[in-house]
Structures are given as structure tokens and as C-alpha cells.
What we know:
Two copies of one chain form a homodimer.
Chain A: E1 7-12, E2 25-30, E3 40-48, E4 76-86, E5 96-102, E6 106-109, E7 115-117, H1 135-148, E8 155-159, H2 164-175, E9 179-184, H3 187-195, E10 201-204, H4 211-218, E11 223-228, H5 232-241, E12 242-250, H6 254-257, H7 270-274, E13 278-281, H8 291-303, E14 311-315, H9 320-329, E15 335-339
Parallel strand pairs in A: 8-9, 8-11, 9-10, 11-12, 12-13, 14-15
Antiparallel strand pairs in A: 1-2, 3-4, 3-6, 3-15, 4-5, 5-7
Helix pairs in contact in A: 1-2, 1-8, 4-5
Amino acid sequence: MKVLAENRSIVLAKRPDGAPKVTDFALQTSDNLPLEAGQFRCRNHYVSLDAGFRNWMNENSGDDILPAMALGSPVMGLVLGEVIESRHPDYTAGDKLMARFAWQEYSVSDGSDFIARLPAHLAFPPSAYMGVLGDTGMSAYFGMTDIGHPGPGDCVLISGAGGAVGSIAGQLAKIQGAYVVGIVGSQAKADWITTQLGYDAAVIRRQGEPLLASILERCPNGVDLFFDNVGGSVLEAAIAAMNPHGRLVLCGAISGYGSDEPLPGPSNMFDVVTKELKIQGFMTHLRHDRYGEAMAALGGYLSQGKIKSPEHMLYGIERVPQAFADLFAGRNFGKTIVNLIDQPL
Amino acid sequence: MKVLAENRSIVLAKRPDGAPKVTDFALQTSDNLPLEAGQFRCRNHYVSLDAGFRNWMNENSGDDILPAMALGSPVMGLVLGEVIESRHPDYTAGDKLMARFAWQEYSVSDGSDFIARLPAHLAFPPSAYMGVLGDTGMSAYFGMTDIGHPGPGDCVLISGAGGAVGSIAGQLAKIQGAYVVGIVGSQAKADWITTQLGYDAAVIRRQGEPLLASILERCPNGVDLFFDNVGGSVLEAAIAAMNPHGRLVLCGAISGYGSDEPLPGPSNMFDVVTKELKIQGFMTHLRHDRYGEAMAALGGYLSQGKIKSPEHMLYGIERVPQAFADLFAGRNFGKTIVNLIDQPL
């Protein structure tokens, strides 16, 4: 067995107050200990940055299944890597995995973590398995396929439209023939989603400008389907813009992850009654058994050039905190990924 | 044609601020004018009091289909009566109707109002057609049948449980074999729903007491289905008490009708994501074409003694404002109805 380098991890140095900052995290170096029976070691090539994990950085977050992250421990996150040694009967060196391990170069697991196997020969660039073929793409796929059902004649509104999930969700709605409008935070993102991703129009959120009026300007006949990654006041404006019998798919609420204080809720819930709206939330990882179906569909679109897999890529474990902070500042165009190792997977 | 007495109506004297008061309304006497071609006149026997109409008393309420009520005009409401003269081809003297006319003794219509015909020979007391067989029962039926789907093993929570809709909704959930808990505002109502309506348990809302803890005391395994008539902080507590994949049926939001200011929304909408909740609103009158189905089902239960049709009955047109105010003070046990005329229908 070859001697491994030290393992570098990013640990939770303190619980973020509001949007995460680089200084909420610290780089920690530790030894790679020998495996125990029933364990395997994964060399992580890529870290996926997902805003939803912010929620588990709060002290009183989590539940029995996924408890709050511990201070001083490596930060829970999604990684993509390769098994390099194994004393576990189900895992063999060379297995390629996407898993909920931690922000670190090497992870040891007993197989009880959330783990998805990748094919031995990857048909797409590895990072695509964290983006359009990963949880990001899954979120867009399940939200649209299982709940949203966009179709021709629908006006589909998507918040966080230039983010990881939004950038895929919009393309999926376009494939189904809908008119698709994205809510973004800057002119640059508005230009990007309309020229690069096929969005029909963009709404730019600007401090002090009423969002509802901006939405109705781009969706003059109202909104039939809202796919929400942001929550809070954006959800409230969308409820106001919905047509009767509209569907609201709640995928995430990045505007609320940054705070221990609860977000003010939509004050227009009575619109849900009068317009007979349907609001449904979903968690991508609870649909684990259908990842195959989703990957086949999304891989097909990718092969046929029907969707793009935009990535905001940074390099090196020490850049992971920055990459995470970028998400909350909206600096990412598409999926945020950190490449940990300058070697092909 | 016989000479008709004067027509007495209750008009909107001023727009209510908060919960409606008797002084927001005034009694007005007018002549019964001769019918024009295409019109018919209905003698109204009963007025149904429904909190939802409060919404249309606000200045900036309503839409193209159902505009805001006008100051000085008879208040829009549901009545049950009999056609006494007609110059309309589809209506004949003796026709029994339930209709969205106004709080008045006689109404003239050209048939374009919301009108449901009743059978010539009523199988149940007329007031039942405004309660369990009227919009009230329809609301309970459609909310439970189309959206809620209660069944054995479900813990069903109902707000406004002693009100018109809640008193029926709870009985319907019991028929389907669920464990049913009602939220009420007083000990008297708690006793009433558990001893008279078959509710398994009651939660009493008390100022300053955390509602969530009270709910979880009565629903120790969490809530699977929430049927909401109240909204606001009650909805927020229910969201917190929901089990994964819970269903929330939004039927009304009486806590919000009393104010021009929007109700604060539920601050825990992210729970909708993490617990994969489904929230759906509905409007009873949009299911007009299925009233026959609902009346058959509810009439069957009523005949078989499986449900009761509790009524809070007042007498005389001048008592209608008091009856409406009673709703918002929670003084009604079951359906609030005013009997306008001391004659059998």
C-alpha cells in the first residue's frame, strides 16, 4: 500500500452569521490513518458547492437523519472522487463515486454515507456529474418533471435563474416548450441567461424596486409555474404574479440560509386560496432511487446538445470557502465546483 | 300580480376596519320595482353568513369576476329563497334557489349571478342547504375529497374546527377513519367538538401560549393533513407540526379577513422544502359543476346519521350584521344562518 500524503480539510471554524464568509472556515491538515475493516478511502477530485448546506451550519439545524454540522469538523459537502483503497466488501479501488462526504482531499467511509456510483468510463467530463448530472441537475429535473410539468403555453418563472439549479431548470422548461423567464441579481446574469441558456427574458432584482411590477412586465399574462430557489420576498412576489391554478415548486430558499432568524413568510397566502395555487416542496436526495432515470434523461439532452452545463470552477482545497461564499454573493454563473487535484479522474 | 311589501336590505355603511362590527352596516328600505324582461324576483328565506365575504368589503379587493363591494349597496352574500315572479325564460315562480345575491328580503336577478337550483321537494330542512348541503359542506367536501384524502392512520388537524366548515370537515375526516384534532378558541368549543362532533381531541388557542406545543401535545406523532380555515400564525404552527409529505389544504384564512394589512406569512416556508409538504388552496364556488356529486355524498351521510349539521341561527333581516360579527368573534357553533321570514319554504 502506497504511503499517502497528508489530508487537507476545510473545517467549520465558526457558525456563519448571515451569508457565509471565508473566515468562517479554516484549513486543517491531518494524517491519513490506516483503514479499519469495513472502511474504504476515497480521493476526492471535485467538491460541489450547494447553498442548501448552509442550513446545517446553524446550531439548531438538522434532524436525526442529517444533524447540524459540528464546529471544528470537516464541513459536510458533496464530492466526486475515486476509491483508492478499500477494506469494504462493496467498494474496490478504482470505483468512481459521488458522495456526501466532506470538504477534504481524502474521505474515509463505511458505506453508510449518501453515495452514488458513477460508471467506470465516464461519458462526460467528471465535473458534469456534479452539475447537470449531479444533485444540481437532479433538483432541476425532479422539480420540473415531478411537480412543475411545464408545457407549451406556460409562462415559467425561475428564481436564482443563473445559479446551479436555475440554469438547468430553465433549459429543461425550454425543452418542454414553455416561455421561460428568469429572476437574477445583475445585468450581467440577465444577459448571460438570455443569450447563453435560452431564457426568453430576465427580471433583475434591484434593491428598492418592486419585484412584482418587474415580473409582470416580463410575464404580462401572469405566471403559470414558479420554480423557487430563493424564497422570502421573491416567493411573495411570485405568489402575487401567479395565474389561477398556478404551480409553485419550492426547491430551495437561499435568501433564508444566511440567517438564524426565520425569513418573513409570504404575506399573501390568501392568494393561494383564491387562485387555487399548489405549492410543493421537494428534497432531491429523497429521490435517490430515481437518479438513474434522471441521469439518462439529462445525459441524453447533454449528448444531443440540447442543454449546456455551465460551471463556475475554482482550483485547490484552500479555495473551497471562497467558492461557497461566492454562491451567496451571486458570483457564480451556473454550478460552482472546486477542482482539488490536477489529475484526470 | 300581487303588490309586494317594501324590500329591506342590509347595506355596507362603511368598510370594516379589522373584525366587522354591527355599525359597519345599515338597514335600508326600498320599493320592490316592477320586473323588466329577462328578470326574476326571489323571496329570500335564509341568509348564509360566510367569513370569506369579508375580503370583498375591502376597498382594493376583488377582481374582474367578483369586484369589491360598493359602499351604500346591499352586501353581497349567499341566500336561499324561492322565485316569486319571473320574466326570465329559465326561472318560474316556485323555483327554489341558493344564490349569491345580497343581504335583502327580495332579490332581482337576470340569471347571471351564481345560482344553484334546489329540488322542488326538499329532503332536508331548508337551512341544511346552506350548511352541510351548501357552500359550507361543499368546502369541507372538496377540500377533504379532492386535496386532503384523509385515511386510517392519518392525524388530521383542522383549524376553525367549531366553525361552519370545520365542523363538517372534522366529521368527514372521521368517516374516512382518521384521527381528528380540532383547533378552537375556547373551552366550550373544545368540549362541543369532542362530545358532539366526534373530534378525537381539541387544541385551544390561548393568547401568549405557544400553539405549536399545544398541537404536538394532541398530535404526538405529528400532523399528516392540515385543513386550514384560519391562516396566519395558525398556518405557521401547523407547518412546523407537519410530518414529511404532509398535505395542507387551504380553505380560508379568517384571521386575515379582518384587516387591510396583509397577515404576516409563515416564516417557516423552508420546512415546505425539507419536509416535502404540499400546500393547495381551493375555492368552493369554482367547483360549481360538482355540487351534485357533493350534495349526494353529504346528503347520504346526513340521512344515515353519520354527520350532524350544527347551526347558529338568528332571526330577522336586522340581525344579519350581528350574525356576521359573531363569526369573527367565534360566537358561532357551526354554521351561522339568519332566517328572514317566519314562513316555511
